[in-house]
Design brief:
Length: 387
């Protein structure tokens, strides 16, 4: 008996995690990606392994997802994670207005926190604003974005998944009733056009999911929300430093290798393929970053970049929309069979997003196969290009 064939569009965090899950559940898997691994938003994240503390007051569903997946990723892919912890700090008296809400929110979401004195905070992080009033330790971490994606992709590949990189999806193969039978692709490296047919197509293209669903005359209710990040050429902190306020612009400084990254803003756009660097937002990152780490004010900028998140919702400013995720069966959403879309979420929750998506795929195809990705360690990210 032949294996069911799933086509996954997108090789960012979610797409490669889905490929991994599908392969473990016995599927033939084909991944189509218009660039290299982590070509889009996944390659431009700041690399924060969320504890959930950032969302514990305003978006508790997302916070709970984060702390649960934080623990799982540390177990299954430890070699791409720096388990350095995080800190929420109050640097102005007004920040203390958030303190009780933060404590209650973390308790409700089962996020372990520890309040420490300003002296202890400065001992742990000497470059912190010396005006720090109080600080909380949280189980944040950082990860290498490319290596995280490659670890999922390498494991999927070792279990039979096939990757078509630098290959654009340019259309859908539809039957007479408008149901999806496969994808039409353009291999840009070899300038070849062909079709790939399968039993199910999974749209895991992040901020681009709307473009893909339109090819099948469907839709998804998401708002692409870019944000700017600024990287500095010195590692000023050893932990992810969050300001003790409701999520806002420029309220995170975190270490990445030998750098420090400040992020991020949040605004809405229509064209996800053209996101300009807005100088006013870069200046905002500088000004707000120095509230946490004063030395950023004189530090050399290493790089400035944008990433576009696919947030669930159809209107309104980005920070009012949920950071959780949702998988859509287009049979229910648009009366189009053969297509499933996953969107929302974040890198920290990519494994859970994959599990939910593959559960839907299995249910649609009448397949009984449990998810095992919570327990299966990922192989080395290096093996994607070696094996």
């Amino acid at each position: 008996m032949s294996k069911p064939h799933a086509i996954v569009i997108g090789a960012g965090f979610t797409g490669v995690a889905i490929a991994h899950d599908l392969a473990l559940r016995g599927f033939e898997v084909t991944v189509v990606e218009r660039g290299p691994i982590a070509n889009g938003t996944s390659g431009r994240t700041h690399g924060l392994l969320h504890s959930g503390g950032r969302y514990a007051v305003k978006d508790q569903e997302s916070a709970i997802e984060c702390i649960e997946e934080n623990t799982i990723l540390r177990k299954i892919v430890p070699d791409v994670i720096e388990p350095n912890g995080g800190m929420f700090v109050a640097v102005e008296e007004s920040d203390l207005e958030y303190r009780e809400e933060f404590i209650a929110g973390c308790e409700a979401c089962h996020i372990p926190i520890e309040e420490i004195t300003p002296q202890e905070a400065l001992r742990l992080e000497p470059h912190l604003n010396p005006k720090v009033i109080t600080a909380f330790l949280v189980p944040d971490g950082t990860f290498d974005p490319l290596r995280l994606a490659l670890a999922f992709a390498a494991t999927a590949k070792s279990n039979g998944a096939v990757f078509h990189l630098f290959t654009d999806v340019v259309g859908m193969v539809l039957d007479g009733n408008g149901n999806v039978l496969g994808v039409k692709v353009w291999d840009r490296a070899n300038d070849e056009r062909y079709e790939i047919r399968g039993d199910i197509v999974v749209n895991a293209t992040g901020a681009w999911v709307g473009q893909i669903t339109k090819m099948a005359h469907g839709h998804v209710p998401i708002t692409p929300t870019p944000g700017v990040m600024v990287a500095y050429g010195h590692r000023f902190v050893q932990r992810a430093i969050n300001r003790l306020v409701r999520p806002s612009d420029g309220d995170i400084v975190l270490p990445q290798r030998r750098m420090a990254v400040v992020g991020t803003t949040s605004f809405s756009v229509d064209d996800v393929d053209y996101i300009p660097i807005i100088r006013d937002q870069v200046q905002m990152m500088l000004e707000r970053g120095t509230k946490l780490i004063p030395e950023l004010g004189t530090a050399k900028v290493r790089g400035i970049y944008m990433a576009t998140r696919p947030l669930i919702g159809s209107s309104g400013p980005g920070r009012s929309i949920s950071r959780t995720f949702k998988a859509y069966d287009h049979k229910d959403l648009d009366n189009i069979d053969g297509l499933v879309t996953i969107t929302g979420g974040k890198a920290t929750t990519c494994r859970a997003m994959a599990e939910k998506t593959v559960d839907i795929v299995c249910e649609k195809l009448g397949i009984s196969a449990p998810c095992t990705t919570k327990e299966v360690p990922l192989i080395s990210y290096r093996r994607f290009y070696v094996d």
